[in-house]
């Protein structure tokens, strides 16, 4: 377990994913699902144990954004299942996510190295099939422009990759959403575009979810 809190920005899972594959006659079924609390993890694990009641092992690993991490080998040799699964979640920087790999033993021993590879690969396959989200704080700004400034401002804002919406009256009012991480760049840029005598500062900050491009 880790007690180090994770930053506000994080990556997580949009929806549950299930994958299945076979290695030397052993079936590996990986369930990867969102889980924001240990209670949610235990609830889902109980459901999987009930669904696959006749399986040999139900190994698990999870990470929460408060820094909590757990790994469980469920009868496999120590360090050959849960810990490798957790390592994959760490490598992909995923939190509020749990992986459970259910194994039906096929009669052939895989050895310690084979088990590590099989359990790791199960989680990798699930992540590859999943839709991932990047959660990060974003700032919302309002600025008012003359029509003569609009085209240039819109070009600059889109070039920066920020979200822009416009409303039109006697002047143009822009609503701009930009990552909080670029605030030190955004404020002077927006202030300049608006030709404002005072800095254009965020009116609110909120967490937004964006799909991760693989």
Automatic annotation (TrEMBL):
Top-level taxon of origin: Bacteria
Protein name (Swiss-Prot/TrEMBL): Impact N-terminal domain-containing protein
InterPro entries per the UniProt record, alphabetical: Impact, Impact_N, Impact_N_sf, Ribosomal_Su5_D2-typ_SF, UPF0029_Impact_CS
Alphabetical list of SUPFAM superfamilies matching this protein: Ribosomal protein S5 domain 2-like
Biological process, per Gene Ontology: regulation of translational initiation
Domain Impact N-terminal: start-end pairs: 24-126
Protein family (similarity comment): Belongs to the IMPACT family.
GO cellular component, one term: cytoplasm
Gene3D superfamilies documented for this protein: Impact, N-terminal domain
Natural source organism: Sulfoacidibacillus thermotolerans
Record PANTHER family: IMPACT FAMILY MEMBER YIGZ, IMPACT-RELATED
Coiled-coil features, chain-numbered ranges: none
């Amino acid at each position: 377990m880790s007690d180090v809190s994770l930053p506000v920005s994080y990556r997580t899972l949009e929806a549950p994913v299930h994958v299945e594959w076979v290695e030397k006659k052993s079936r590996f079924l990986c369930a990867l699902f969102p889980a924001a609390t240990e209670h949610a993890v235990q609830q889902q694990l109980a459901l999987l144990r009930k669904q696959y009641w006749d399986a040999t092992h139900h190994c698990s690993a999870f990470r929460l954004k408060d820094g909590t991490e757990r790994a469980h080998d469920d009868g496999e040799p120590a360090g050959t299942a849960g810990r490798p699964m957790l390592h994959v979640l760490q490598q992909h920087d995923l939190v509020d996510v749990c992986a459970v790999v259910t194994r039906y033993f096929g009669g052939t021993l895989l050895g310690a190295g084979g088990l590590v590879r099989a359990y790791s690969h199960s989680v990798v396959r699930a992540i590859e099939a999943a839709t991932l989200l990047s959660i990060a704080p974003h700032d919302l700004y309002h600025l008012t422009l003359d029509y003569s400034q609009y085209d240039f401002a819109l070009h600059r804002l889109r070039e920066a990759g920020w979200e822009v919406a416009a409303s039109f009256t006697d002047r143009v009012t822009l609503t701009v959403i930009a990552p909080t991480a670029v605030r030190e760049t955004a404020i002077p840029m927006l202030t300049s575009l608006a030709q404002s005598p005072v800095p254009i500062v965020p009116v609110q900050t909120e967490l937004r979810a964006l799909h991760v491009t693989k």
